Amino acid sequence: TGKFFVGGNWKCNGTKDSIKKLVSDLNSATFEPDVDIVVAPPFVYLDLVKNTLTDRIEVSAQNSWVGKGGAFTGEISVEQLKDIGVQWVILGHSERRHIIGEKDEFIGKKAAYALSEGLKVIACIGELLEEREAGKTFDVCFQQLKAYADFVPSWDDIVIAYEPVWAIGTGKVASPEQAQEVHVALRDWLKKNVSAEVASKTRIIYGGSVNGGNSAELAKKEDIDGFLVGGASLKGPEFATIVNSVT
Ligand code: 13P
User: Fold this and answer.
1) Above pLDDT 90, what percent of the chain?
2) What ipTM score was computed for the predicted complex, to two decimals?
């Protein structure tokens, strides 16, 4: 479904020095041509990365404000991101949902605003371990997906990232079968609730402990259209290995 997509979410990591090194490693890496590649540095390094990283790789923010900028201390507006050439934003990441406390509706509205201003959106969803164990994985994911569907004007510029919270930063990657099962269910939900066209066109990527050793097996699954990578995206050569696991 669509072009393979690999995002690197650098989260709240790095210094000017380590980020310059990572950019230089990415600039000299060899990537398969038929893959969309995006990296998401912390806000304070976005301009540096945008100005020094090869155009082969697009740049994403990790969050954006829900509306037009103004008196919102500590927030960054979509207009400001556009102003420095950022093309993407990650929204609804589990760390923002569960540590910062962002709610479905707020996230859906952020996605709608970012899209309306011309940013592309990596829309994250995913269940907690206790939700999986209680058999609620699909319910939780559908509810989070619905909150995007309720607000977004179009799905043309959205990539869905399924990131089970129990797999993030834990080293416990979902098995290819576990990820595939959820991706199929999400596509089915889109078909029933949005349209068959959106269901077949929208890329659904997997995130949670993806690394250079497990990406190739995951990438073989029909409904895994790419990855959102955390820890392993901080190492240029390993990130390149993951990008190049496209099948
Ligand atoms: P890890 O790859 O470090 O598990 O993080 C995944 C993630 O949250 C990407 O957004």
Assistant:
1) 99
2) 0.99
